[in-house]
Amino acid sequence: MVSRVAGRSTSYEAEPAEGASVKTLLTQSPRVAARLIRRGEIVAFPTETVYGLGADVFNERALKKIFAAKKRPADNPFIAHVAEKNEISLLAKSITPAAALFIRRFFPGPLTVVLPKKPEVPLTATAGLHTIAVRMPRHPAARALLRACGVPLAAPSANISGRPSSTTWQSVYADLNGRIGGILKGGRSPVGLESTVVDCTGRVPRLLRAGAISLEQLRKIVPSTRPAVVRKNAVARSPGMKYRHYSPRARVLIVAGGRIPHYGSTTGYIGTRRPPAGTDFGLAKVCRSPAEYAHELYAFFRKCDEANIDTVYCQPVKPAGIGRALMDRIRRASHL
Ligand code: TXA
Ligand code: MG
Q: Can you list the domains of the chain with their CATH numbers?
């Protein structure tokens, strides 16, 4: 049930989810969404990677609303999103030489750079860290929202913590209706996996999270770029990476040696190759390329949950290019 309120494309949903306490406004207008942000509300919006859940990066109360709405652990920092490159100086104390090169080549786009933080940015946004992750999205609706807000937006992915990120406004709605001020509706996120995160605070840039901008592409710009060394029990460089992530309710298994131990109506399959002859699944998706696999993965996980699938088989791909990000997310979803 929808009742029209302010303008043609804006509506309030009449029935918030159980336990919810706020009205969630659905809108296609970046200006309407920006008005909510300026009032200290939190608003989900489309980006080319996944949907984000945004708040004014300088508004502590709004930042705290994000942690509550997502049930996000307090030690996991947010990425700050900017409309223009010159806004980076509102957030970062300095732009290191490697960061300057990456920014010149890949902004706007699916890349996040970690820089030394300006003291003006609340520690709530960075979960106590003195560094800040910055990204300039390419998506037109995200850009329009950021411009209309006139401030950078702190925005994690718009999902309940631990669930797959949302690649459609409908998934945002399923997770967060009644918990957030609004949703800026757009189409499906074209990339489908979260941005590449590269720590540029040290001498050597470190890849903290793989994404659509590949390690190979980063190395073309700064050849010394390395994957982050993950040490057990060490303080995580990227706190978010220690949490279980991106998981459907179903068990996720990586297909090893082409073998599918059991199949049937409560199982799912996704990959770039057809499943072995003689197998059948409740849901199956054969993708044309690793890029399409990346685009489909989270939507497929969510579809499996809706269909009460208990086991999802994911075919592995070569961990190069977008394949590195894809295998990273599949491994995390499979608890490896
Ligand atoms: O594509 C994306 O990056 C999406 C869209 C909305 O921009 N955002 C996103 O945010 O995926 P989130 O919060 O789900 O993931 C951000 C990751 C986390 O792993 C977090 O720990 C890391 O970036 N991060 C944020 N600030 C950091 C910092 N100062 N140092 C190291 N890692 C940081
Ligand atoms: Mg996330």
A: 2-227 (3.90.870.10), 251-333 (3.40.50.11030)
8 A C-beta contact, residue 77 and residue 129: yes
Which of 238, 243, 295, 322 is the pocket-test mutation for ligand 1 (most atoms within 8 Å of CB)?
A: 238
Q: What is the pLDDT of residues 220-274, one digit of tens each?
A: 999 999 999 766 554 555 655 555 567 888 999 999 888 898 999 999 999 999 9
* pLDDT tens, position by position, 140-158: 999 999 999 999 999 999 9
The ligand 1 atom nearest the CA atom of 129 = 29
Whose C-alpha lies nearest to ligand 1, atom 18? 240
User: Contact at 8 Å (CB) between 260 and 313?
Assistant: yes
Measured from the Cβ of residue 229, the count of other Cβ atoms closer than 10 Å reads 8
- pTM of the full predicted structure? 0.92
Distance, in Å, from the CA atom of 224 to the CA atom of 125, rounded to the nearest integer, reads 29
